[in-house]
Amino acid sequence: MQNAMRNDSPEDPVTDPVTGFTYPEPWIRKASGRDDLALARNGLAVLTSSGTILRRGFTTGTTAAACCKAAILSLVRPVESVDVTVPCGLTVTVPVAGSGGQAECRKYAGDYPTDATAGLLFVARCTVRPDGMELIPGVGIGRFVRDTPRHQTGEPAISMPARDCIFTAMEEGLRETGLDGAQIMLAIPDGARVGAATLNPKVGIEGGISILGTTGLVEPWDDHLSASVAERVGHADRVVLSTGRIGLRYARLLFPDHEAILAGAKLAEALSAADGEVVLCGLPGLILRFLDPGILDGTGCMTVEELSGRPGFERKMEGAFHTAKERYPGLRIVVIDRKGVIMGDSG
Length: 347
Fold this sequence. Notes:
Layout lengths: L24 H6 L3 H8 L3 E3 L5 E3 L1 E2 L1 H14 L5 E7 L5 E9 L2 E5 L14 E8 L3 E6 L2 E2 L1 E2 L15 H18 L3 E7 L3 H6 L8 E2 L1 E2 L7 E2 L4 H13 L2 E5 L2 H10 L4 E4 L4 H7 L3 E6 L1 H8 L12 H5 L4 H15 L3 E6 L5 E4 L2
Parallel strand pairs: 8-11, 9-13, 15-16, 15-17, 17-18
Antiparallel strand pairs: 1-2, 3-14, 4-5, 5-6, 6-7, 7-11, 10-12, 18-19
């Protein structure tokens, strides 16, 4: 549960602090009550067009951060929960059990039933050191087995936003305990088994799961939410769709006069609902695979990101743009990198 819940009436405006979307009044009137609306207002849940509330979960990065912070705090007192500031700026309270320098935390997936890491146990052990912080990724955390555009062989599969979240949580733990330094051994006992069943082996990660989290929250998905995305698209005169948080952020900057909507993996449904100017903006992975499912065929690459660093990528991208124009004549596609630099624009 997030801190500082408000007790506003159901009629008050409700804006999602994660996406910036202000929910329409008819959606708010259909919601069951103040508690549900408080969850939506505080970013812990998503309100759908039917009035249904779908709870967001915590990413592996948030779970790891909570576990590491609790391990530090448990050196001076038993711990049952910790506050974690997640990458999107919200502060969330995560249940965790810690005592004697060891903490355990299970990943909460919210209303995302197909989350492969739901309920996965994280274990952190803390050792005091004279100064500074050290994180040792242990059993169950995947490692890259080949070089990629952003990672070298042997590196742990921990994204930068997740790493920053973990170290921020550790810093908070040190301040609260008054300690000068700590070494954390972080492990996921069942991570190797779960990781093998994800896409990790296909992108060159073996031995466990990835520690990720662009916002720190897991987005829920079901038929109601798909309908809500479609309804938002259908009511917008000028819309820019994105597949992820990075794309959504830059989409808002590049197209400030458009309504920016996170469609995730629901691009087909969102495009079908569109009735006006539509821009698709985001990282190349999901977008180009959606436009051309066979874009990697014959390239020897496992991911679009890997392909983007090879000769001939622009030709492949232009081919995907051409295919998309035939299927969606009114669609403009803007592909960006992680720094927001435009890699391709179908115009």
